[in-house]
Amino acid sequence: MASPAWHYVLKFIITGDAAVGKSSLLVRLTDQRFLANPDPTLGVEFGSKLITLPGPEATIVKLQCWDTAGTESFRSITRSYYRGAAGCLLVYDVTSRRSFDSVRTWLADVRAHADAHVSCILVGNKVDLVSGGEGQEPRERAVPTEVAEQFAKEEGLLFTEASARSGEGVEEAFVRAAQEVLGKV
Ligand code: GDP
């Protein structure tokens, strides 16, 4: 028998304040590119991607990822957005303390509306800004890695830092959350 195109289909959602890079992470995952000046009114709503989980038998997972597409500032995120989500990326910007402080509210929202077993990964995006490079002056980091790591530990979240711009850590974030989801199956 031919091997299946994928073994599992998982719904993932991406939450966090406006401008932390949610659409950019989704575009990086699905299209391997970065838009320096995306149109903020045209958030990317949906992207699909096959990922392979490492292991003795490669498991192929089809991720169906939903982004809030600019609706986060209107607080109009509805129950249907959360319904059936297996994984969730809680995104903040490592140069914005405010976006990190908001994660608590986003997490409360996820816990109130998503299924109880949803796997969440806290993602500190835009790490490229604090390391400089590519002719950029390094920007000041507002959220120390250890602070975010400690918060994730207390809340039972996975944690990573990433950059939609460079691609660093992006696919890994989705892979780790998917691994946790399937570990519970
Ligand atoms: P969203 O509102 O959370 O979906 O955020 P966007 O994906 O629209 O990104 C907001 C702004 O941050 C845009 O100007 C992006 O180009 C920029 N951005 C997103 N991710 C990164 C990143 O990893 N590094 C840098 N330097 N800029 C980023």
Please tag this protein with its features.
185 residues; alpha/beta; 6-stranded mixed beta sheet; 7 helices; binds guanosine-5'-diphosphate
Structural overview:
It comes from Mycena albidolilacea. GO terms for molecular function: GTP binding; GTPase activity. Belongs to the small GTPase superfamily. Rab family. This is Ras family-domain-containing protein. This protein has a 6-stranded mixed sheet with strand order 2-3-1-4-5-6, with helices on both faces. It is globular, with a radius of gyration of 16 Å. With 185 residues, it is of the alpha/beta class. The protein has helices spanning 22-31, 79-82, 97-101, 103-113, 127-131, 145-155, 170-183; strands at residues 8-15, 46-53, 59-67, 87-93, 119-125, 158-161. Helices cover 32% and strands 23% of the residues. It contains 7 helices and 6 strands, in the order βαββαβααβααβα. Guanosine-5'-diphosphate binds next to helix 1 and helix 5.
Give the structure's gist in a few sentences.
The protein has seven helices and six strands; from the N terminus they run E-H-E-E-H-E-H-H-E-H-H-E-H. The protein has 185 residues and is of the alpha/beta class.
